[in-house]
Amino acid sequence: MKILVCIKQVPGTTQVEIDETTGTLKRDGVPAKMNPFDLYALETALRIKKETGAEVTALTMGPPQCEKVVREAFMMGVDRGVILSDRAFGGADVLMTSFTLAEGVRKTGPYDLIICGKQTTDGDTAQVGAEMAEWLGIPHVVNVKSIDRLEADAISLTVDLPDYEMAERIPYPCLMTVEKGIFEPRLPSYRLKCATADREITWLALGDLGDKDPKHYGLNGSPTQVKRIFPPESHVEHVMLEGDDREKAAKLADLLEERKFLQ
Fold it and tell me: What is the CATH number of the domain that holds 105?
């Protein structure tokens, strides 16, 4: 069995500048970390690996510094790493991101199971996984909260929907996105860090993919453009209420009513 986990390096801080021309995040020089939701996807893959002996590959797309998250995945128990890195991929919207990742899957696969985190903390669209599956022409399921049974040709899951839970059996090859409560992610291993320090990573650029048309990637190929992006405004005000308990309670009630928190 071969499993692919999609991971992403995201800003490790909320203080990120925006490129006013492209509407994209300026990632150079910004502290970065692995997308927290991807840790649950990795843990899910590694649990399945322990049970089935599967080979687990981590795939990411980004600038050269995203090698750090692939090395971190090795430290958790991942067997192979693939990085899609080319200036032509920069500025991609959700559609072009999913297309590029799907091209990477075609180049390095096939895989029986693809696992993604529910969403990323920088984009928050929760759409890339499902769109990848559509590009690849494979079945998919999102918001998976538990793995119920592994079979030779399919996987049985419980899906978390807004009003109820649903049991699904999905045949291989397939893709799923997992909720953060599915498993508790393990910590990176120092022993594996030493053992995998020289492990080779597969780097893929535009010229390595099946579709080499630059108009199908990055900002050039993206049908949607960010009109405006900005950090949320901060409105922090500290109010000190004086008096005894009864007086402070009355002042607080008046304040809440004045600001229309109470009617």
Answer: 3.40.50.620
Contact of 16 with 26, CB cutoff 8 Å = yes
> d(Cα 209, Cα 212) in Å, to the nearest integer?
6
pLDDT in tens, 80-96: 999 999 999 988 889 99
Residue partners of 143: CB distance under 8 A and separation at least 6: 118, 159, 160, 161, 177, 179
Other beta carbons within 10 Å of 250: 12
Q: What is the DSSP letter of 118?
A: S
pLDDT value of residue 238:
82
- Residues of the chain short of pLDDT 50, as ranges, are none
Task: Report which secondary-structure segment, H or E, holds 36.
Answer: helix 36-52
Neighbouring residues of 112: CB distance < 8 A, sequence distance ≥ 6 = 1, 2, 3, 54, 172, 173
Structure pTM? Answer: 0.79
Residue 121 domain-assigned?
Answer: yes
pLDDT of residue 152: 92
Per the structure block, which two tokens stand in for 17? 């500048």
Instruction: Identify the pLDDT of residue 224.
Output: 84
Write the CA distances from 190 to 36, 113, 193, integer angstroms.
20, 28, 5
What is the rounded distance in angstroms from the CA atom of residue 15 to the CA atom of residue 229?
13
Residues 36 and 180: beta-carbon distance below 8 Å:
yes
C-beta separation of 179 from 160 below 8 A:
yes
| Domain that residue 150 falls in | 2-221
The answer to whether 113 touches 4, Cβ cutoff 8 Å, is yes
- The single residue listed with the structure tokens 């053992």 is 195
On whether residue 134 sits in a domain, the answer given is yes
Residue 58: strand pairing partners? 5, 81
